[in-house]
Amino acid sequence: MIIASNRTASPGEPKVGGLAVAIWEALRERGGGVWFGWSGETLERETRGVRLFAEDNVDFALADLTEAEYEGYYLGYANRALWPVFHYRVDLAHFDDHEFAMYEEVNRRFGRLLAQFTRTDDTVWIHDYHFLLMGQEMRQSGWEGPMGFFLHIPFPAPEIFTSLPQHNRIARALCAFDLIGFQTDRDRANFERYLREIGRATFLDDGRIRAFDHVFRTKAYPIGIDADEILGLAEGEEGTAAASRLGRIIDQRALVLGVDRMDYSKGLPNRMEAFGRMLDDHEHTRGRVSFLQIAPPSRSDVDAYQDLRAELDQLSGRINGDYGDLDWVPIRYLARGYPREMLAGLYRLSRVGLVTPLYDGMNLVAKEFVAAQNPEDPGVLVLSEFAGAAEQLDGAILVNPHDISATADAIYQGINMPLDERIERWKSMDSGVRDRSIAWWRKSFLEDLEKIPEEVK
Ligand code: ADQ
User: Fold this and answer.
1) Which atom of ligand 1 lies closest to the CA of 225?
2) How far are the Cα atoms of 32, 207, 321, 416 from residue 271, in angstroms, in the given order?
3) 7, 354, 365: which to mutate for ligand 1, most atoms within 8 A of CB?
4) Do 387 and 363 form a contact (C-beta atoms < 8 A)?
């Protein structure tokens, strides 16, 4: 098993986060393998090899980037072109040929490095938007065995995807994989529509697709979580301690909680405005509801992220200034991360989980919120219809996050929902989260990928 993702877990340290655990388990379950990725280091000079770290039966193969590669490949093309376009923010995208050349160069160098680790009967699984070209590089380096790709972020409608000057190059490279996995049917359908309308693809009777001289399959594999792990954390010592620490401060007020990386795709300003609108529209909620938003800054070297930070500081300040009182702060906005144990405890304490991204591949926070609830007194999930998770979490109150009034109403509805309705909605979501777990995701992708060599090419 050979897996590549931009960042890997840290060798020798506990594997935290759903994805890191899923990949780690996939490698170990299959008798070991290689987990390849960027070391997180940048060097001034040119760099070529990898550093190897062995843990159990897994080899971590970590490559460094030069400072120029970090700028062009990571901050540049991946996070200033692909991330915004794939999240429908063409207005924020920055297209620069030099940055694309760096992206291509890193994919090429990494593809060649990875090809060196493969043996005849291996299976290769490559992850996410940092490595869209890597499959093609692997094929050019001679790898002919099974090779799958999973996209963690949305795949946009073709009208948006084609705004990328290199869309054809990217689509062609993706088609070098045998199996291309998406978070949702919507993403898969967008990719297939691009192939049909622009890539002149042929759709074969057995479900396979022929495009750009390759034959491959596509399918949605909604990523999941380990619900028991989250529940255990929520009920554990650190989770309950965090909940009682916050509980003392918010007193008897209802807690509305948001937990996100600070990213413009997460709809944080809209969410704060919606909370402010609810206080506007329903005077009696003032002093009775507290909104906690946890949002650690990420990618702060990219301008759009600095602008977002300033906007959130300003908005939360304004709402608190307008409505706050001697003994009540409407919005607690914490620009830092917290350990998973604490987050799980806070999810459980909340009356409303507010997960309102403008666009999101899946959104695992929504699933973690559901898994952490007390079955006898569960909270309500207010979820954006543009999060991948909305395809599955039918018990949530679904909202259009651009519609501030509707989001305000949904928060209000969540705060006031009777217990029997809360329980009913939560039950259907919890069973879905448990069925489509992170283990299910990994197994179903790999089973499909490993069937490929049996198919006639
Ligand atoms: P992200 O955009 O990072 O992931 P998401 O899936 O919500 O989004 O969260 C990832 C993890 O980070 C969660 O496990 C969450 O608990 C943790 N996290 C978030 N905020 C945190 C905070 N403030 N402090 C500590 N931990 C925090 C990308 C895609 C998603 C997709 C995932 C997985 O953008 O759409 O669901 O990959 O495929």
Assistant:
1) 14
2) 44, 41, 17, 18
3) 365
4) yes
Per DSSP bridges, beta strands 51-55 and 58-66 are antiparallel
pTM over 0.90: yes
- For β-strands 179-182 and 147-150, DSSP reports them as parallel
The sheet with strand 209-211 has its strands ordered as 51-55, 58-66, 33-43, 2-7, 124-127, 147-150, 179-182, 214-220, 209-211, 202-203
CB 160 within 8 A of CB 194: no
State pLDDT tens for residues 144-199: 999 999 999 999 999 999 999 999 999 999 999 999 999 999 999 999 999 999 99
Both tokens assigned to 43? 């060097």
| Type of residue at 33 | G
Cβ–ligand 1 contact at 261 (below 6 Å):
yes
Q: Is 127 in the pocket of ligand 1 (CB under 6 A)?
A: no
Active-site residue, selected from the candidate residues 187, 226, 263, 360 = 360
116 SS3 class: helix
Task: Find the radius of gyration of the CA atoms of the chain.
Answer: 23
Between the alpha carbon of residue 446 and those of residues 30, 63, 192, 345, the distances in Å are: 10, 25, 21, 33
Catalytic annotation, pick one of 127, 130, 152, 214: 152
Q: How far apart are alpha carbons 457 and 455 in whole angstroms?
A: 6
> How many angstroms separate the CA atoms of 236 and 272, rounded?
30
Domains of the chain, earliest start first: 2-224+439-456 (3.40.50.2000), 227-435 (3.40.50.2000)
Question: Which secondary-structure segment (H or E) carries 66?
Answer: strand 58-66
Q: How far is the CA of 387 from the centre of ligand 1 (A)?
A: 12
Per-residue pLDDT tens for 72-112?
Answer: 999 999 999 999 999 999 999 999 999 999 999 999 999 99
Closest to 241 (Cα-Cα) out of 338, 333, 346: 346
Q: Where do runs of H (alpha helix) occur along 236-267?
A: 237-250
Neighbours of 63 (CB within 10 A): 20
Element (DSSP H or E) covering residue 20: helix 18-29
**What spacing in Å lies between the alpha carbon of 360 and ligand 1's midpoint?**
10
